[in-house]
Amino acid sequence: MRRQADRDLKLPEDDEIHFAEEAVEEPPERQGRVWKVMVVDDEQEMHDITRLALDDFSLEGRRLRFLSAYSGKEALGMLESHPDTAIILLDVVMEKEHSGLEMVRVIREEMKNSHVRIILRTGHPGQAPEREVIGKYDINDYKEKTELTAQKLFTSVMAALRSYRDIQIIDRNRRGLEQIIDASADLFKQQSLGKFATGALTLLTSLLHLDDSSLYVRTTGLAASCKEGSYRVIAASGRYSDCLDEGSIPEEIVRDLRQACRDRKSFFSPDRYVGYFQSNNGFENILYLKPHRPLTHVDKNLISIFSTNVATALDNIHLNREIVETQKEVVTTLGAVIDSRSKETANHVLRVGEYARSLGLFMGLPESQLEVLSLAAPMHDAGKIGIPDAVLLKPGRLSTDEFEIMKTHTLIGYDILKGSGREIMRAAADIALTHHERWNGGGYPRGLRAEEIPLYGRITGIADVFDALNRNRVYKKAWPRQKLLDFFHRERGGLFDPDLVDLFLDHTDELFAIYKAYPDRDIYRGNEDAEPFREVTP
Q: Which 3 state secondary structure label does DSSP give 302?
């Protein structure tokens, strides 16, 4: 009844504002897609008349939702809960003479909220002169209450909302570009690809003034399967941001996805656009958008370009991943070939790579370095390919001359690997050269000491010795677990980097679990007195 009474009220010809009798809350159905307007005034009449004058206001199909505060302190607390407030209609004099101006300072300087549009409304222009206030405070409009007719209020709010909307679009563009730039440095990683596509989707919806709730979906690659709905969400924004898999996609959208897959073409509806694009390698890509308005020919072209480019990026990612996996397999196979010549097993190089990666992870190395370390560490014994069989395959203790020959595998491996410009191969060359250097300077080939030894060499050295002691080899039996741990305790700061030993001892369960995951067959054929790791120390 109160709402109908307000609608029946007629403004006089001079368009002066009349006061309503009570505040009216927006009904729940109007509190979805709305513009939030905060009225901050210690006079109830100003709250009432603002609601009355703007009762039928809308912009781009969105109505106003009013928030009411009666003091600066109350308003600041409310703004914390509603950071998406578009406009503040702010009185100057409330609990204090300049409460409104102090609130402006807090919003801009302390809360760092530069988006909300602030319209100052004052009944005491002498206490807050317009020229002085506009120059000193970051407000967006200044109105005296005596001159503020309903039409002028409408005009001020419309201008402020358009300004706020444009600022939001610019900010969304900026965030979209930041995501794209951030992802472009590491585009060929799956996680970064998601960031890249999400950033591009955010930018697209901002440029086209679309609803920011959008999806970019890829099928599993089998055209027939997508009709049943095997989808993978590559990018999502707005209220669809939590759609990580098909089960999270609303059923009405799933129906649209199936239709696009079934018909293999894009289609438009009054309230949505479903774009279908097939990539070169057979993957099907679907773009789901919710426009506020009918899409123009230019809009559709931009959407088509976006979808095509992202589909191409996805194809490139898939191809690059295949290349990376092939490189990993080649590196691991090469390490296995080298070890097989010395009667080892392929699992030795796999384990050393996993041990090294785990130690790097425990010490907090970034993912990019962990990847390099796990691929380079299996190449540590590449130089054994140049060691004569009589030395390499001898089951017993090596003579002094034989041990000098064995030590040259570090130099041979370095010479083999150093010519490459690839990061993994350069790291492998350093590891091959330095994985037998020791913290106390007693290692070989150069007698490096402490941090003179490259980190990757120190890590791989521990990984290699741990694996050597933990398993049967042709010339010795595996050490019992406690004997092995006692050895590392004893050599902390001796043979090995003390900090790395601490990490090793703190995570022995994880490291022993790696061995169990890649076990060896029993190849012991030596004698009980054989040196436990003959190529590690003389």
A: helix
Average pLDDT, the chain: 78
Q: Which residue has the tokens 């123009």?
A: 296
291 lies in the same domain as 361: no
Hey, what amino acid is at 140? N
Is 522 domain-assigned? no
How far is the C-alpha of 179 from the C-alpha of 114, rounded, in Å?
Answer: 21
Give the DSSP H or E segment for 253: helix 251-263
pLDDT at 224: 37
Q: CB under 8 Å to 347, separation ≥6 — which residues? A: 518, 519, 520
Provide the 10 A C-beta neighbour count for residue 399: 11
User: Higher model confidence: residue 251 or residue 328?
Assistant: 251
pLDDT category of residue 286 using cuts at 50, 70 and 90? confident
First-to-last alpha carbon distance for the chain, in angstroms, is 98
With beta carbons less than 8 A apart as the criterion, state whether 497 and 439 touch.
Answer: yes
* Residue-level pLDDT at 184: 53
In the structure encoding, which two tokens stand for residue 201, read together?
Answer: 């989707």
Question: Residue type at 456?
Answer: Y
Active site residues: 384
| 120 bridge partner residues | 90, 142
Quick check: 208 and 291 in contact, CB under 8 A?
Answer: yes
Over residues 411-424, the mean pLDDT reads: 87
Give the domain CATH number at 156. 3.40.50.2300
Give the relative orientation of helices 400-407 and 409-417 as an angle to the nearest 10 degrees: 20
Please tell me the least confidently modeled range out of 116-120, 216-220, 526-530: 526-530
* Contact partners, residue 348, CB within 8 Å, separation at least 6: 339, 467, 471, 520
The C-alpha atoms of residue 37 and residue 57 are separated, in whole angstroms, by 12
Residue 175 domain flag: no
Please, are residues 212 and 238 in contact by the beta-carbon 8 Å criterion? yes
- Same-domain check for residues 156 and 216: no
Last residue of a domain, one of 112, 132, 167: 167
15 in a structural domain = yes
* Parent domain of 396: 342-517
Q: Could you give the CA distance from residue 468 to residue 462 in angstroms, rounded to a whole number? A: 10
Tokens of 455: 């980190």
What local confidence, expressed as pLDDT, does residue 239 receive? 74
What mean pLDDT comes out for the span 180-206?
63
